[in-house]
């Protein structure tokens, strides 16, 4: 009993001493830095970008269609910059951190890039439902990803197929198809993830402005090594890239689409268009194969990629093609570096007596231009009154 009493007395003294001692919380090092909110879009369209990099010397926002935007660092190591009010649209951007480009780690909306682990970040400045690329309460189509082994190119690749709302594989009349091609550095998903092609067609179809059609987005590299290590645009490889892509499109992709979907199998029911590299490929495929495509469009087309000499790239193109084509539509932004070669190509077409529609709009080499191009181009397709 004595022993128990001693122990209890000891515990009581200890408890009293502990109660009198000031409470102390051991310092803790936070495992993660506080979350950075970026990008932040204000009601007036201003966008604030933030990036945590306390050891960086310089951080700049690189924006498609905009001047580089320097950022300033606060005492927490967070760099910040705010734009002037931006028009409603989807804007790709990245950060240049001491000379190295990186996407925004606080933003999960990415534009994928082919053969690259990370692409550009994207910020959406929302606008009214009247804009063709804004999500609306209308019936929506379906996007399906197809994979196949290319015997012509020698790799495993994919293509996406958009089927319009209410697609009926058993209806009497087959659906027309638009083969819509991406640009250099993009992958096959680009026209969906950033181009908003499916949303644009949903809205145009719901408004009665465009025919219900399928859209096929296929990987645009006939020589995938053209993108190894950056922009590897030597003329010989560019021509191989173009020619092998067109061959795979005609011999592999189109037959698969026509086997699996209820679509037209003649030129009047097929259109082809694309942007930049894909614009050059579309012009090459369409003008050199008017028996396959009666509707051809090029958006900011990299026409030099089809071959260094226009006459060599389009050996049979002359005025006779006018009786086969229902539409040849060539568009480019006036601030685009490709406006000069596009004008030269148009002059060459004129010298050959080829009829076409020339479209020049404000804008540079950006998705902001190409979404508007598609919005104007799609309603012209598969219409009986077109030339």
Please describe what this structure looks like.
The protein has helices spanning 2-20, 190-193, 197-206, 235-260, 277-288, 310-313, 339-351, 367-377; strands at 40-41, 47-52, 59-63, 69-70, 72-73, 78-82, 89-97, 100-102, 110-111, 120-125, 142-149, 156-163, 177-181, 214-218, 270-275, 295-299, 327-333, 357-361. With 387 residues, the chain is α/β, with parallel strands linked by helices. A hairpin with an 8-residue loop joins strand 9 and strand 10 (120-125). Helix 4 (235-260) crosses helix 5 (277-288). The protein is globular and about 70 Å long. The model is unreliable at 1-30 (pLDDT under 50).
Nutshell version of this structure?
Helix content is 26%, strand content 24%. It has 387 residues and is α/β, with parallel strands linked by helices.
Helix content: 25-40%
Order of secondary-structure elements: HEEEEEEEEEEEEEHHEHEHEHEHEH
How far apart lie the N and C ends?
Answer: 112 Å
Beta-strand percentage range: 15-25%
- The total strand number stands at 18
Main beta sheet: strand number and arrangement? 8 strands, mixed
Nearest-integer average pLDDT:
89
Indicate the radius of gyration in whole angstroms.
Answer: 28 Å
Shape: globular
Give the strand order, joined by hyphens, for the main sheet: 11-12-14-13-15-16-17-18
SS field, number of helical segments: 8
Q: Which spans of ≥5 residues are poorly predicted at pLDDT below 50? A: 1-30
**Helices and strands: which structural class?**
alpha/beta
């Amino acid at each position: 009993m004595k022993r128990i009493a001693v122990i209890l007395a000891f515990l009581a003294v200890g408890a009293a001493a502990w109660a009198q001692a000031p409470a102390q919380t051991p310092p803790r090092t936070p495992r993660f830095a506080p979350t950075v909110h970026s990008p932040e879009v204000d009601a007036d369209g201003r966008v604030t970008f933030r990036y945590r990099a306390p050891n960086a010397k310089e951080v700049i926002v690189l924006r498609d269609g905009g001047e580089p935007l320097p950022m300033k660092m606060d005492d927490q190591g967070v760099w910040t910059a705010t734009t002037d009010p931006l028009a409603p649209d989807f804007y790709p951007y990245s950060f240049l951190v001491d000379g190295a480009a990186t996407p925004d780690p606080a933003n999960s909306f990415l534009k994928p890039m082919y053969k690259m682990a990370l692409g550009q970040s994207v910020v959406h400045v929302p606008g009214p439902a009247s804009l063709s690329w804004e999500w609306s309460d209308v019936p929506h189509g379906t996007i399906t990803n197809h994979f196949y082994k290319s015997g012509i190119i020698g790799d495993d690749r994919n293509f996406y197929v958009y089927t319009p709302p209410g697609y009926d594989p058993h209806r009497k009349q087959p659906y027309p198809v638009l083969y819509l091609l991406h640009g250099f550095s993009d992958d096959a998903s680009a026209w969906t993830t950033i181009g908003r092609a499916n949303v644009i067609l949903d809205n145009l179809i719901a408004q009665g402005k465009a025919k219900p059609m399928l859209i096929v987005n296929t990987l645009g590299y006939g020589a995938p090594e053209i993108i190894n290590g950056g922009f590897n645009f030597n003329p010989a490889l560019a021509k191989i890239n173009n020619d092998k892509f067109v061959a795979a499109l005609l011999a592999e992709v189109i037959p698969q689409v026509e086997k699996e979907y209820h679509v037209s199998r003649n030129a009047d029911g097929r259109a082809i268009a694309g942007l930049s590299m894909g614009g050059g490929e579309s012009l090459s495929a369409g003008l050199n194969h008017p028996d396959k495509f009666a509707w051809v469009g090029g958006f900011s087309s990299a026409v030099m990629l089809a071959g260094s000499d226009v006459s060599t790239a389009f050996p049979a193109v002359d005025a006779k093609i006018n009786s086969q084509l229902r539409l040849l539509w060539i568009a480019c932004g006036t601030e685009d570096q490709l406006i000069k070669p596009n004008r030269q190509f148009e002059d060459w077409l004129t010298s050959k007596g080829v009829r076409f529609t020339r479209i020049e709009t404000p804008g540079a080499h950006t998705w902001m231009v190409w979404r508007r191009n598609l919005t104007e181009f799609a309603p012209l397709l598969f219409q009986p009154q077109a030339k």
